[in-house]
């Protein structure tokens, strides 16, 4: 099987299973606006809301809460990313070295959700 989809050169896979793993990892949760890739639909939706939604941009300018928790099912929304980070560490036991900017940058070329270094 071959993958001819961007953003990479054509790739060949010996089995459908390997192709499917590749497709799920690299093509399923990609932002159509900036082409960044995300680990789940939830992260993709957060990215779109925080980076490409003009209504949320206006709400943010007014100081309204637009930064939703990364944990699906948690209804906490914060006014600033540092407050969301603190909530996720305190309430959901996220490690302090988790890359909380993943919602902006995506996961392209990464093997971990933790900050490199």
From TrEMBL:
The residue ranges of the C2H2-type domain are: 31-52
- Please give the superkingdom of this protein's source: Eukaryota
Q: What is this protein called?
A: C2H2-type domain-containing protein
Provenance organism: Aplosporella prunicola CBS 121167
Please name the taxonomic classification of the source.
Answer: Eukaryota, Fungi, Dikarya, Ascomycota, Pezizomycotina
């Amino acid at each position: 099987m071959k993958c001819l989809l961007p953003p990479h050169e054509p790739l060949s896979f010996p089995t459908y299973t390997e192709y499917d793993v590749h497709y799920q990892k690299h093509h399923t949760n990609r932002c159509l606006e900036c082409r960044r890739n995300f680990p789940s639909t939830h992260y993709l939706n957060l990215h779109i809301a925080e980076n490409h939604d003009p209504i949320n941009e206006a709400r943010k300018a007014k100081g309204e809460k637009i930064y939703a928790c990364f944990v699906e099912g948690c209804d906490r929304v914060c006014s600033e990313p540092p407050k969301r980070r603190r909530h996720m560490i305190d309430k959901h036991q996220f490690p302090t070295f988790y890359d909380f900017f993943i919602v902006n940058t995506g996961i392209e070329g990464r093997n971990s959700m933790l900050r490199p270094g």
